[in-house]
């Protein structure tokens, strides 16, 4: 005979109740894991704007090397 599990309230739990409780605990554990991952991503330093500006400047410099594009004239001296 299988041992009967008792809930926190003191009532006996059916096999179905035990399976549901097991799944619920797994879901709760996964939620906690996802919350901690999200928090770690939020706390991670975002890519700095200077990094983005540096990449942009490299791209502009490459485009300026091609005289046929005439980037300086098209940008009206802004680049």
The side-by-side strand order for the widest beta sheet comes to 1-2
Averaged pLDDT: 84
Question: What fraction of residues sit in β-strands?
Answer: 5-15%
**Element pattern in H and E:** EEHHH
Helix content: 55-70%
Largest beta-sheet details = 2 strands, antiparallel
Highlighted features:
79 residues, mainly alpha, 2 domains, two-stranded antiparallel ribbon, 3 helices, 2 strands, 63% helix, rod-shaped
Short description:
With 79 residues, the protein is mainly alpha-helical. The protein has helices at 15-43, 49-65, 71-74; strands spanning 5-6, 12-13. A two-stranded antiparallel sheet has the order 1-2.
Overview of this protein structure:
- Helices cover 63% and strands 5% of the residues.
- The chain is mainly alpha-helical and 79 residues long.
- The protein folds into two domains: 35 residues; 34 residues, no CATH class.
- A two-stranded antiparallel ribbon has the order 1-2.
- The chain starts with a strand and ends in a 5-residue tail after the last helix.
- The mean pLDDT is 84.
Q: What's the SSE blueprint?
A:
Elements: E1 5-6, E2 12-13, H1 15-43, H2 49-65, H3 71-74
Antiparallel strand pairs: 1-2
